[in-house]
Amino acid sequence: MDDNNSNSAKLNVFIDLMRIVERGFIHKLKQRRPDITEEEISKEVTRWYMERPGAEHGDSDGVVGDVARFLK
């Protein structure tokens, strides 16, 4: 039971940190482009999550796995 609580707490911290980082990214976008629309912000945030350094391979070190194994 403690492992579940510990893992849950770690996940919650991770989610909170990602929200903070996302807000910072949005703030930076608005500073650089004061006329940016909410739709453009949404597209930029999505692009950032997919393309930021480290995201290309799932935010982890090591060998990139074959995603096809999850489709079986």
Contiguous runs where pLDDT drops below 50 for at least 5 residues: none
Structural class by sheet pairing and helices: mainly alpha
Count the helices. How many? 2
In helices, the fraction of residues equals: 55-70%
Largest sheet: none
DSSP strand (E) fraction? under 5%
Q: Care to count the β-strands?
A: 0
Give the rounded overall mean pLDDT. Answer: 85
- What is the 3D shape? extended
- Helix-strand pattern, N to C? HH
- Give the termini distance in whole angstroms: 31 Å
Question: What integer value in Å does the Rg equal?
Answer: 16 Å
Number of separate structural domains: 1
Task: Report what the structure shows.
The protein has one domain. The chain is mainly alpha-helical and 72 residues long. It has helices spanning 2-32, 38-51. The two termini are 31 Å apart. It has two helices and no strands.
Secondary structure elements and pairings:
Blueprint: H1 2-32, H2 38-51
Features:
72 residues; mainly alpha; 62% helix
Task: Provide a short characterization of the protein structure.
This protein has 72 residues and is an all-alpha fold.
